[in-house]
Design brief:
By secondary structure, the protein is mainly β. The chain has no helices and eleven strands. Strand 5 and strand 6 form a beta hairpin.
Amino acid sequence: QVQLVESGGGLVQSGSSLRLSCAASIRTGTNYYVAWFRQPPGKEREFVARINRVTGITYYPDSAKGRFDISVDNAKNTVYLQTPSLKPEDTAVYYCAARSFDDTSYKYWGQGTQVTVSS
């Protein structure tokens, strides 16, 4: 069973940046992708970034390229999401998710961390 715990969210002013953390109970060397999603209030959840925990190879949708940066520290079993200079429209609950290479959908989810950006 994989457990994911996000942290690092909060209320920030427009122009600030945050580093979100996802502590993942995934055995080192096992073949998992870890991803970040976000869900703005009243909107659908959207994919932000993904990282291959073994190779460190990252993937971003076009909407997130050049804005967010996902990274992993395998020694700490933690995946990070560095946000850009935040805007009010980045206000959302940010979720961490994981799936094995064999799964086609994300099977494991964290509880989410709220990011609120004031103008």
